[in-house]
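Protocol step 4 of 5: obtain the predicted structure for the target chain.
Materials: sequence only (see below). No template structures provided, no constraints applied. The aim of this step is simply to have a reference model before the mutagenesis design in step 5. Sequence pasted as it appears in the construct record:
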Amino acid sequence: MQNTYRTRENPIRVLMLEDSGRDAEHIRGELIRANVTTITSRADSEASFVSELLDSTPDVVLAEHSLAEFDALSALAILRRFSPTTPLILVTGTVSAESAVVCIREGAEDLILKANLGRLATVITDAIELRRPLKSLTQRQIEVLRLVAEGGRTSDIAKRLNISVKTVESHRTQIMRRLDIHDIAGLVRYAIRIRLVPLTT
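Step 4 output (structure tokens):
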């Protein structure tokens, strides 16, 4: 996939979940060196993370694995509530293999160590490009896509969303058309690729 880094007129909105100002500057400097134009903000607690999400939905979250009173797993759970299509990339100093696997299964896009940020720009832009087709969907259609990918039956989805079966079917048809995906299996694969549903579902 060819990377298309954002221009100054259309920068990538990056939210860092990071309690070290020095590390945040290190990450920001790497993106500048990679010619990625960004608008960055930083959160270092659950409250500030939620506030930043509500204030301006980021294109991507770069998260340290564990902060003093908050961690990437908790951030992923919050993202699923407030911004389920925003990718979260672990950018961390150290993390155990077990913890890394859990985070990936729960929806983290990738894992990058702070000591080796060379892939960061590519991972960010690939994650954003993969989700670009979602911009053609409404929030309700994204919700239907998630429930379909979780294995929900049409009647169950209708009941959960308090809409008719016919409306669910209409949404599903529109989703397939707008994403250029032609079967349920394809929708499930795409939803898993973009981490709309965790791998444990």
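Step 4 remarks: The mean pLDDT is 91. The domain at 12-132 is CATH 3.40.50.2300 (Rossmann fold).
Proceed to step 5.
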